[in-house]
Design a protein that fits this description.
two-stranded antiparallel sheet, mainly alpha, 1% strand, 418 residues, 18 helices
């Protein structure tokens, strides 16, 4: 479908009056419909909020596991309650640095999911962790792939529900972008979104955020601006504490951080450096508050801040070499980048996209300093060898494109260059 049709449909949706008390998902209201679900919701908020800060992750996990044990087979709403607790367990495992265990928990959640909404939420989070791990995924992947549907009595398919279809297609579209399949991404971000946008029922900010990144990547800056701003407004004014049908790196806090950082990148790509610095500073503060000063997400945002200063210096004809170098050094330190003289570029490594990009940018700074060219050449060679992006070469990624041209966007949710 033509890009003009996408723009028209979303423009109508974005300009339409916002619904009051918007319902995110049909099943999220479940968190308050039955006693088991209300109990589970409180346990989730406590374990991922209060307990996570006041006690150990192990203690928070015991709370969730005990809740699931107590609520199992407890009558109406118990299956939904256990599903909520399992999603929360996967998030806690992810936040504790146990990505593989989080993925296994999400697979188990898919198998016992009491509805398609739960199954899609678990699948969405699982795909997010696969993407973060840099694993190969086909854009034809589906929430039904690893589930025996013959034992399910759910009459509603996700593909028959606009809001779930939109969630699934935007994840598949994000995978297509990572695979360098821009045409497939366009089709996926288009298919099934129009009816959903017109009514905007069960709105999910995560799906809209992914769509904003797609528009940003393909150079539609005006439309990307509208989508990012709408997402940021929603996470600012709406209570996302009831949004429990999300997990891992797709939870509302990750969406808020990601949208803030991506909007900052868009502003810098548009030459609005004062506003860009403001939003990227907010993103840095969010990352430090949510994850701690030495978490890789902080290194990802620092890389975006450094890139903003690079573009600002280029646009203004000024120099900020010392500032940029300090930011790249700190980002690479936090990301635990392997040494240049190691064989890390050819091995599996976390945050490969971001480390390669940061090292490529850092190398450019060194290459313009006559006494550091040799160091710059070694760093450039390492970055080029490590770069795996299928949509753009490292050289293209380092060159900021004009609006309407393909560009790269750093997605803090999955720690990838899209």
């Amino acid at each position: 479908m033509a890009m003009s049709s996408i723009r028209s449909a979303f423009a109508r949706a974005l300009l339409a009056p916002k619904p009051r008390g918007a319902c995110r998902y049909a099943a999220v209201a479940a968190a308050g419909e039955t006693q088991p679900e209300r109990v589970a919701a409180e346990m989730v908020r406590y374990a991922l909020g209060g307990a996570a800060h006041r006690s150990s992750p192990e203690e928070a996990m015991r709370i969730l596991e005990q809740g699931a044990s107590n609520l199992q087979g407890g009558g109406e709403g118990s299956a939904e309650a256990v599903g909520l607790l399992m999603l929360a367990m996967s998030t806690l495992l992810y936040r504790s640095g146990k990505r593989h265990d989080a993925m296994e928990k999400l697979k188990a959640t898919q198998q016992v999911a009491p509805s398609t909404a739960f199954r899609v939420a678990a699948w969405e989070a699982l795909m997010g962790l696969h993407m973060e791990a840099g694993q190969e995924i086909s854009s034809s992947v589906s929430p039904d792939d690893s589930v025996d549907l013959s034992i399910k009595d759910d009459d509603n398919k996700w593909s028959d529900q606009d809001h779930l279809k939109f969630r699934v297609n935007t994840i598949k579209g994000l995978i297509a972008l990572l695979n360098g399949e821009t045409e497939s991404a366009t089709q996926l971000f288009t298919d099934g979104c129009f009816d959903f946008c017109a009514g905007r029922k069960n709105q999910t900010e995560n799906a809209f955020f992914s769509f904003g990144e797609y528009l940003h990547c393909v150079g539609d800056f005006p439309m990307a601006t509208q989508v990012y701003e709408r997402v940021l407004e929603a996470v600012r004014v709406e209570d996302t504490s009831g949004n429990l049908l999300a997990a891992g790196n797709m939870v509302p806090e990750e969406v808020s951080l990601g949208a803030t950082c991506s909007y900052g990148q868009l502003l810098s790509h548009s030459g609005k450096f004062g506003e860009a610095e403001d939003y990227l500073t907010r993103a840095l503060q969010k990352a430090e508050e949510q994850f701690g000063a030495n978490h890789p997400k902080v290194g990802i945002v620092l890389t975006c801040v450094a890139r903003m200063y690079k573009l600002k210096a280029k646009f203004e004809g000024s120099s900020s070499i010392m500032v940029q170098e300090g930011l790249y050094r700190k980002a690479l330190e936090v990301l635990k980048a392997p040494a240049i003289n190691s064989e890390g570029a050819s091995k599996q490594m976390d945050w490969r996209d971001i480390i390669s990009l940061a090292r490529g940018e850092y190398a450019e700074l060194l290459l313009i300093q006559s006494n550091r060219k040799a160091e710059g050449e070694r760093m450039k060679e390492w970055a080029e060898d490590a770069w795996r992006n299928r949509r753009l070469t490292l050289a293209q990624a380092l060159e900021f494109a004009e609006p309407s041209k393909p560009t790269v966007v750093v997605d803090t949710r999955i720690g990838r260059v899209v």
